[in-house]
Amino acid sequence: MKLTAKGRYAVMAMADLAAQGEGVRSSLADISERQGISITFLEQLFNKLRKAELVKSVRGAKGGYILNVPAESLTLDRIIHAVNEDIKAHGCTPDDRLGCTGRTSRCLTHNLWGALESHIEQFLASVTVQDVVEGRLPVLAVRTQELEAAE
Fold first, then answer.
1. Count of H helices and E strands in the chain?
2. pLDDT of residue 118
3. What is the domain count for the chain?
């Protein structure tokens, strides 16, 4: 599975921004301190998030960033794609339509990994930043309940 720090940290930073409240500005230094992400890395991410129009930058002494899309309608897939992340479960490239990397035909598990990618994309498209902030993640909630019941 290839979801790098870029995608994970972008979601963390956007959830942090949303958790501060609608229209509340946060500096990258504040987000960095709260989330443990380097400011340099956040600068790279927020440049891409700004270009994708998911955040607005506010200049001045009390400047920072605010969400440009309401947290309740901002899905995680939009954030991940904004920072140029792809969800990839197999090693095939788009050029490998007929065969898998290094092969002349598809491997036995090619369609399995493609289906997994599709499920992950659908899941990320169904979860909003507000869901993350409020802890409304049904799959995780079920797993947490199972773990608590086992104790």
1. 7, 2
2. 86
3. 1
**3 state DSSP class of 28:** helix
CA distance 77 to 120: 9
- Residue 45: give its domain's CATH number: 1.10.10.10
- Whole-structure pTM value: 0.80
pLDDT of residue 96: 55
Which pLDDT tens digit goes with each residue over 17-47?
999 999 899 999 999 999 999 999 999 999 9
Instruction: Provide DSSP, 44-103.
Output: HHHHHHHHTTSEEEE-STT-EEEESS-TTT-BHHHHHHHTT---BSSS--TT-SSS-TT-
Cα–Cα distance between 123 and 115 in angstroms, integer? 12
18 vs 112: CA distance, rounded Å: 35
Closest listed residue to residue 1, CA positions, set 120, 101, 122 = 120
Using an 8 Å Cβ cutoff, are 116 and 89 in contact?
A: yes
CA 97 to chain CA centroid, nearest Å? 27
Q: How many CB atoms within 10 Å of residue 66?
A: 17
Distance of alpha carbon 107 from alpha carbon 100, whole angstroms: 6
CA distance 29 to 8: 18
